[in-house]
Write a structure and sequence with these properties.
Layout (H helix, E strand, L loop, with lengths): L1 E6 L10 H10 L7 E5 L4 H9 L7 E9 L10 E6 L6 H12 L5 H10 L6 E7 L12 H19 L1 H5 L3 E2 L13
Parallel strand pairs: 1-2, 1-3, 3-5, 4-6
Antiparallel strand pairs: 4-5
Length: 185
C-alpha cells in the first residue's frame, strides 16, 4: 500500500509550524519505496488535486497527517494519534470548513473534511494532533513542543511504516475546532 505523509501548518508560527517541521525532518529519513513525505500546508482544493494526480491503479491507500491542533485539555507537546473514522460533520460545518479554506486558513480539520467531502482521501486516515502552546510569529517551538519533537516524528513515522501500529490505533471522529486567533507582536 502506498502512503503519503503530510505536514499541515504555517511556517514561522512557533508551535503551529510543527506539521511542516516534522515533514521536513522525515524527508531526511530513508523512506520505503511506498512512502511519500510532502508538505501539505496549502489550500485543500490543491491537496484534492494533488491526490487526484496519482494514477487510479496506484493511489495512496493511507494518509498520515500531523498538525498543531489546540484542544486546550492537553499539555503542550502532547501528541494524540488516531485513525479518523471518516464520519463527516453536519453540512453547516462542511460549509464553514470551505469558507475558512477559501479565506486562506490552513487547518488540519478543514483539510480533511474538504478532501473527504470531495472523495479525495484514501480510505485510511491517520491523524497526529500536537497540542500547541505558543501561537505567535517566530521560529522556535515552546518548551513542551520542543521536548516532544523527536517523539512526534517517530509517532508519525510509525503511522506511515508500521501496519500493526496503525491497526492498534483508536478509531474516532474529528473534534472540529475553531480557528485560533492570531497574536501579533
Amino acid at each position: 500500500m502506498r502512503v503519503i505523509v503530510g505536514g499541515i501548518g504555517y511556517p514561522d508560527l512557533c508551535d503551529y509550524s510543527i506539521g511542516i517541521e516534522v515533514q521536513e525532518r522525515l524527508s531526511e529519513r530513508e523512506a520505503p519505496p511506498n512512502v511519500v513525505v510532502e508538505d501539505l500546508s496549502y489550500n485543500p482544493i490543491a491537496i484534492i488535486q494533488r491526490l487526484g494526480d496519482e494514477p487510479p491503479d496506484d493511489r495512496f491507500g493511507r494518509i498520515v497527517v500531523v498538525s498543531a491542533v489546540k484542544r486546550g485539555d492537553r499539555s503542550p507537546g502532547t501528541a494524540e494519534c488516531y485513525r479518523w473514522n471518516g464520519v463527516m460533520p453536519v453540512d453547516e460545518e462542511v460549509q464553514r470548513a470551505v469558507t475558512d479554506a477559501v479565506t486562506g486558513i490552513i487547518a488540519m480539520d478543514n483539510t480533511l473534511v474538504i478532501a473527504r467531502y470531495f472523495g479525495a482521501l484514501p480510505d485510511e486516515v491517520v491523524v497526529v494532533e500536537v497540542e500547541p502552546e505558543t501561537h505567535e510569529f517566530g521560529a522556535s517551538f515552546s518548551p513542551g513542543v520542543s521536548s516532544a519533537f523527536e517523539k512526534i516524528c517517530d509517532l508519525v513515522w510509525s503511522g506511515a511504516t508500521d501496519d500493526k501500529f496503525v491497526a492498534g490505533l483508536p478509531s474516532r471522529s474529528l473534534a472540529l475546532t475553531a480557528v485560533p486567533v492570531m497574536r501579533f507582536g
